[in-house]
Design goal:
The protein is of the alpha/beta class and 296 residues long. The protein folds into two domains: 81 residues, Arc Repressor Mutant, subunit A; 205 residues, D-Maltodextrin-Binding Protein, domain 2 (3-Layer(aba) Sandwich), CATH 3.40.190.290. Helix content is 42%, strand content 24%. It has ten helices and ten strands. The chain is globular and about 65 Å long.
């Protein structure tokens, strides 16, 4: 019988690429991960890893096994959700991952509601860039989190993750005067750190307008971004949630670009009472804010 814990390590290797990354994500040592994967390979009776120096690559048999592992983990989560539903009150730990601009509008009212409705529930909140959410969910670092996509940056959560639409915002061009992205070919740009969705959006939105942006400053906090715009240091793209309270002199021009936020959780865990409570509380907050997603 194949060991589920070892199967999970193989799945993590498939997603993260290196044994060192798996070890760091799951708080193992690299040698422990290697030993467990070697044991899994012996149990399977077929080669699962191809080694080339310090790097490893999954064989075709291993990739097939990863697909089965996703199904196995989903069934186990469904079983756990069914058992948890038999309890009369929620007394577990719920870990929520959010991006900073969602804290005042979505997270705060959601945790207030959760604390009031389920006083025995222990809430743990982590600030996460949406680009890191799928790995955080697969690694059990959080139970439910917010992921994003823009018109120019589609959502890609990968296998094992469920995502349901939550809300939608308009993206604005922040500058010292009104205009369009096409007008800013020669302007300095302010974008997020390389690898973040905000950075990718800036690059792709400008490319859609026919040019590559000249990014002068990198900032992930929208308050800092708007302060730099106000200081005449460049232009930037800013969504609704970050646009409130813009500094004097900053002009926000609505664009045809939308940012959509979804609730994400591990596939099979959506009906778990704790995850279901979080989904309900976050949806209620989005409705109250007037940002709830509507079909079409």
């Amino acid at each position: 019988m194949l060991d589920v814990r070892r199967l999970r390590l193989l799945r993590e290797l498939s997603h993260r690429g290196t044994i060192a990354a798996v070890a760091e994500a799951l708080t193992y040592t690299p040698s422990a991960v290697s030993q467990q994967l070697s044991a899994l390979e012996r149990d399977a009776g077929v080669p699962l890893l191809e080694r080339s120096g310090r790097r490893v690559r999954l064989t075709a048999a291993a990739e097939t096994l990863v697909g089965h592992t996703e199904k196995i983990l989903e069934i186990l989560r469904e079983a756990d959700a069914d058992l948890a539903s038999a309890a009369s009150t929620l007394r577990g730990t719920l870990r929520i991952g959010v991006f900073p601009t969602a804290v005042p509008t979505l997270l705060t009212p959601a945790v207030v509601r959760l604390s009031s409705d389920h006083p025995g529930l222990r809430l743990l909140v982590s600030e996460l860039d949406p680009a890191t959410v799928p790995d955080a969910l697969r690694g059990d670092a959080v139970d439910v989190a917010l992921v994003q996509e823009y018109d120019h940056v589609p959502l890609a959560v990968g296998p094992g993750i469920e995502a349901e639409p939550l809300m939608e915002e308009t993206v604005h061009l922040a500058a010292l005067d009104a205009g369009s992205i096409a007008d800013r070919r020669d302007a300095p740009w302010i974008a997020g750190t390389l690898g973040t969705l905000c950075h990718t959006l800036t690059v792709r939105a400008c490319e859609a307008a026919g040019y590559a942006p000249g990014i002068r400053h990198h900032a992930d906090d929208f308050g800092a971004v708007l302060a730099l715009v106000a200081a005449g240091q460049g232009v930037a793209l800013v969504p609704d949630l970050a646009a409130g309270g813009s500094p004097d002199g900053v002009v926000l021009t609505p664009l045809a670009i939308r940012r959509r936020t979804s609730l994400a959780y591990r596939r099979g865990s959506g009906t778990h009472p704790e995850v279901a409570a979080a989904r309900e509380a976050l949806r209620a907050a989005a409705v109250s804010a007037g940002l709830a997603h509507t079909a079409g």
